[in-house]
Amino acid sequence: MKGESSLWNGKVRLRRFLNQSVRPGWIVLNLLLFTTVSAQDWSFTPHAVQGKVHMLEPANTFGNVGVFAGDDGVLIIDSHFQPAVGELLNQVAKISTAEVRFLVNTHVHPDHIGGNGLLADYGVTVVAHNSVRLAMLSELRIPRRGGTFRPRPEANALPVLTYTDAISFHFNDEEVRIFHAPPAHTGGDSFIHFTGSDVLHLGDVFRTRRYPIVDEFNGGSFLGMIEAMELAISLAGPNTKVIPGHGSGFSDRAGMEEYHQLLLTLKERVQLAIEQEQPLSKLLAAGLTHDLDVYWGDDAGWTAADLLPVIYGELSQ
Ligand SMILES: [Zn+2]
Does CATH number 3.60.15.10 belong to domain 2-316? Predict the structure, then answer.
């Protein structure tokens, strides 16, 4: 009962929050609060993707946010970081005045789950793959800089609804299918298919203008990423739009095919080097990706030098 009443209170608080959020005074307060918390830019650029789906692209290039909105309510994909939640909800309120009911986490990384606790306190139901919840019961480990740690998330940030293979939402006159992708960016990646709007959200399995991140600490796999992208492409029609986990603007089937080709090219080049019995150090010194770096090297924190050892390791097994 306590849970039910706090959930109800949360919904009331969220409605108040959304009602207040359009008032200029509240926005000023919000800006003051967040600018004192950090110098980080927490603003978003909104994109109307297709049908009932929007994308909020953060200025700081951390995780993109998906928004599915209609008369029955709003479902958000990924919660970015906690200090961004106020601006995130301001943007959602410009798209729809309906209640924010659900949040789906595509995977466990902090820039995709950071706002969970605050949104849950407002009454939003947090949904994710089982393994995301499991990973959140411990200190988080992320792949950058050889594996760095983040504190264990607060209890209120945990998903309250988890699934194993797939789960569907039926609202706003549309089926939203959420299903477990093959191990790729992590072992707990969710793909979201907005079947009526003809939109896919692929989380960090798909990044535009950036080399793929394979998080080996959380069950990711480079070969699985190829398989996952083939699955996503098989679901896409000629007009399908695709939200990447990171990258400017939304993409489409051709964008996924281009990225898939990158994965195959990387696999082929590393495979050849292994067949020629090149040690990893020689491979890294050989400039194997120089021709690709100009287009795909848009993330200084994760370059070919971070990715190639992962591919080498997997293909050497
Ligand atoms: Zn990620």
Answer: yes
What's the 115 CA to ligand 1 centre distance in angstroms?
Answer: 15
* Cα 13 to ligand 1 centroid, rounded to whole Å: 30
Q: Is the pLDDT of residue 240 over 90?
A: yes
| Residue 14 binned pLDDT confidence (cut-offs 50, 70, 90) | low
Q: In angstroms, what is the span from residue 4 Cα to ligand 1's centroid?
A: 32
Structural domain boundaries in the chain: 2-316
CA of 232 to the centre of ligand 1 (A): 17
How far away, in angstroms, is 306 Cα from ligand 1 center?
15
- pLDDT surpasses 50 at 110: yes
Q: What is the pTM of this model?
A: 0.87
For 266-310, the pLDDT digits (tens) are: 999 999 999 999 999 999 998 899 999 999 988 888 999 999 999
How far apart are the CA of 2 and the centre of ligand 1, in A?
A: 34
CA of 5 to the centre of ligand 1 (A): 34
Ligand 1 center–CA 207 separation, angstroms: 10
Alpha carbon 287 to its chain's center: 30
CA of 111 to the centre of ligand 1 (A): 7
**What confidence tens digit (pLDDT) does each residue in 175-204 have?**
999 999 999 999 999 999 999 999 999 999
62 CA from centroid of ligand 1 (Å): 9
